[in-house]
Every structure is written in C-alpha cells, then in structure tokens.
Specification:
about 170 residues; mainly alpha; two-stranded antiparallel ribbon; globular
Length: about 170
C-alpha cells in the first residue's frame, strides 16, 4: 500500500465518528417528526404536520447516510462489506432496497399516513442495475418502528458485523 493510500484511509477513518453522528442526527429527526405528528394526531390538531418537516427528505438522508458509513468503513478496512453482512439486522433488505429506489430511481417511498403514523402503502417496484424487475413488499410497520428496529439491531450487532474493527466497549 502506498503512502498516499495509507493517508487516504487515515483521512476517511478520521471522519467515521462524523458519519455516526450524521446517522444519529437523521434518526433523531425522524423520531422528532414522527413524535410531532403522532402527538398532534392524539391531541386532535390539524394539520398534524406543519409542512416544515418532510419525512421523505429526512428518511432519504438517513438511508443514504447509512450507505455512506458502510462505504467509509470499506475504505478504512480495505474489506468489502456486503449487504449480506447485515442479514441479522431487522429490515436490512428493506433498507438496502429503499436506498436503491431512493438513490437510483428518485422515489419518495413514504406515501401513507394513518392514525398519527407514516407508512409505505404499496410495494416498491423497480428495475435493478441488472435490468431485472424487482418488487419489495411494503412493510407492515410504520416508518419510526422500522428505523428504530434497524438502528437498534445495527448497534447491538456491530461487533459481529465489523468484529476486527469494533471497539471493545
């Protein structure tokens, strides 16, 4: 490995903490938006969303931040981190395919609201990068539950996901 490559890995590695903070930032924004909408629904306030908070934009940023974190870890470790590494993380396939639909097709996938919660109303259908039709079943859970379960499992399983690179805490 050249000195320049080592330096690049060090630079990227120095930003991993920032990527984790960015991930947390967007997760907190999702929590805040979902709690606001749910609280307004329960209080009978209409409209429940002030339109200053767009759940789709925030969710899109959240999903793409995870991909960015994954890519940064690949650079730092010189190891391919396949999505299959996340098979133990609830909703990992959903997040992978959502990210593809959002990034490659420009989709806004959160398209339903009921009883104070945001949902995906219908399956996500797209043509993948190999030209094949792909349909992702719409999850039954609301967006907040999906994000929290994915994030919880991700943090619980981080030592199994990146065993050589996780801290011992």
């Amino acid at each position: 490995m050249t000195e320049q490559e080592i330096h690049h890995k060090m630079v990227v590695g120095s930003f991993i903490k920032n990527k984790l903070e960015e991930y947390e930032y967007f997760l907190r924004k999702i929590i805040s938006i979902c709690n606001l909408v749910n609280n307004n629904f329960l209080a009978g306030i209409n409209p429940v969303n002030t339109s200053n908070e767009d759940i789709n934009f925030t969710f899109n940023a959240f999903v793409n931040t995870f991909q960015s974190l994954k890519d940064s870890l690949e650079t730092v470790t010189s190891q391919k981190i396949a999505w299959s590494y996340f098979s133990e993380v609830r909703h990992s396939t959903f997040f992978k395919e959502c990210r593809n639909a959002i990034t490659h097709d420009g989709m806004q996938i959160i398209n339903a609201y009921t009883d104070g919660k945001y949902y995906i109303a219908s399956n996500i259908e797209r043509i993948d990068n190999k030209g094949k039709f792909f349909s992702l079943e719409a999850p039954k859970q609301d967006i907040l539950t999906l994000c929290l379960e994915f994030s919880t499992d991700l943090m619980i399983n981080r030592r199994q996901l990146w065993p050589k690179h996780s801290d011992s805490k």
